[in-house]
Amino acid sequence: MKKNIILAAVLTLGAVGHMFAQDKAAIKPYHIYEDKDNDISITLGGRFFTDLSYNTSDFTPVKSGTNIADARLRTSLTFKNWYFYGDFDFGGGKFHQRNLFVRYYLKNDEESSKSLKFGYYAEPFSMNLNTSEYAMKFINRPSTVFALGNFRALGLTYKYYNNHFFSDQGIFTEDVLENKKPAGNQSWNVTGRYVYIPVNTPDLTLHIGGSLRYKQNNGGELINEGKTLKTNQYISSSLEMGDHNGQFLSANIPWANKLYKVGFEGLVRMPRFFARGEYIMQKITKKRPDQELFDAQLGGLWSWTTLKSWQKANPLDDSKANGGYLELGYLLNDKSHYKYNREFALIGGNYDPGAFEVVARYSYTNLNDIKEGDVFLKGKNKFYPGGKIIDYPNESMSIAGGKAHSATVGINYTINRHAIISADYTYTRLDNPYFPNDKNFNSIQARMMFSF
Predict the structure, then answer these.
(1) CB atoms inside a 10 Å sphere around CB 121
(2) Of 32, 44, 319, 390, whose CB is crowded by the most CB atoms within 10 A?
(3) Could you say which residues form the signal peptide (predicted)?
(4) Which residues touch 178 (CB under 8 Å, ≥6 apart)?
(5) SS3 9
(6) Distance between alpha carbon 204 and the CA centroid of its chain, in Å?
(7) Three-class SS of residue 163?
(8) In 204-272, which ranges are E strands?
(9) How confident is the model at residue 360 (pLDDT cuts 50, 70, 90)?
């Protein structure tokens, strides 16, 4: 393994040296067809990320090594007020549909823009999740946005922005490509992101905003001999390191019915400094067919004689989770300056050759919702309410999805518009009853990004 890591590092450095030798000025997107008379333009592009990571933990093994984190081809077509975009990922040797949508501009000029968008794309929730990976300042996104954010889905949105306000909202189905719930109907949700920009000059941008999401959960699994639908909501995130299996931060919420999510965000941008952060809260309410389940248990070994007594032995309560992050960045030279993109209410990437940046981040993710007085018995991987180690009827409402504090420092160097090299160090402190011997994680990562 060490030999492979060393070999990958040598090859990466060799590629960097070659890119220095071939350094050229940034160019516009590659047009494969353009008809100015009829206002038609077609572009073709792609990107390729290679990662190198060395990870350690106290007890449970985490993988180190190299991988192709991202390999995409993308194309777009512009025709008058219409814009089509397709993005296809072949990273990791597997095909993934990323983005496929059509946007129609109702208005689009220097003062403001109004548009409708339909297709498969990222929901407008979270500043971080709506930032392209090529424009990110860190190799990994914060665990918080992976666990409590939401990614691509099939939907319809309306977007409006001007010099001081940004709004993007719409209705979506549950992810049509990732929905693997074996039973029930497809879920749906409404999502929106709203930003107020009181100051936006070349020297200073101030930005405050928030995101909202409501989901009606309709999918799950069949129990009670196939007669009862048990809805559920699975939430998870990898730690901010090269091993992305999500085992340390994950929870399966039974009987999930409605999901409410609120996010708050803030941003300060100067020519060579930025600070930004988000805080997200999530609440899941539950609904269960108690009478149906009560009737099904009658006549069994542990029959309960009344519905009220059965409900007392099988309590049901809402589940909550929360988290946030704060990021800082500073450009060490004047080769580039941070720029604010009002179309997406985000800081753009640093694509000017020679830009050298240092960044730091603290993030906090809490998927633990442990009820007061409950005791966890590792031997059975189970919580017991009131500290009473009795298998029946003691059913706990506690959820142990894990709690993580992470700190990251990193550097980014822009070789040219088409190549950026990054390196990060991350320390994570974990609190998860299912992994009592795992407290400390360390990760050193490097990434080479190519894009055209």
Answers:
(1) 23
(2) 319
(3) 1-21
(4) none
(5) helix
(6) 28
(7) coil
(8) 205-216, 219-223, 228-237, 249-254, 256-269
(9) very high
The CATH superfamily of 2-451 is Porin (2.40.160.10)
What integer best gives the mean pLDDT of the chain? 88
Helix (H) or strand (E) holding 308: helix 307-313
Q: For the purposes of burial, counting CB atoms within 10 Å of the CB of 354, is it exposed (0-12), middle (13-18) or buried (19 or more)?
A: middle
What Cα–Cα distance (Å) separates residue 379 from each residue in 264, 383, 434?
A: 40, 11, 10
Nearest to 127 by CA among 265, 326, 328: 265
Helix (H, G, I), strand (E, B) or coil at 328: strand
Confidence (pLDDT) at 380: 83
Q: Is 41 exposed, middle or buried (0-12, 13-18, 19+ CB in 10 A)?
A: middle
Indicate the pTM of the whole model: 0.89
Sheet holding 219-223, edge to edge: 183-184, 219-223, 228-237, 249-254
Contact by Cβ (8 Å): 316, 255: yes
Tell me the mean pLDDT in the region 134-158: 93
Query: What is the number of residues in the chain?
Result: 452
Please name every residue paired with 444 in a beta bridge, in sequence order, or none if there are none: 54, 425
In degrees rounded to 5, what are phi and psi of residue 324? -170, 180
Cα(227)–Cα(429) distance, rounded to whole angstroms?
A: 43
Residues whose CB falls within 8 Å of the CB of residue 9, separated by 6 or more in sequence, listed in order: 52, 446
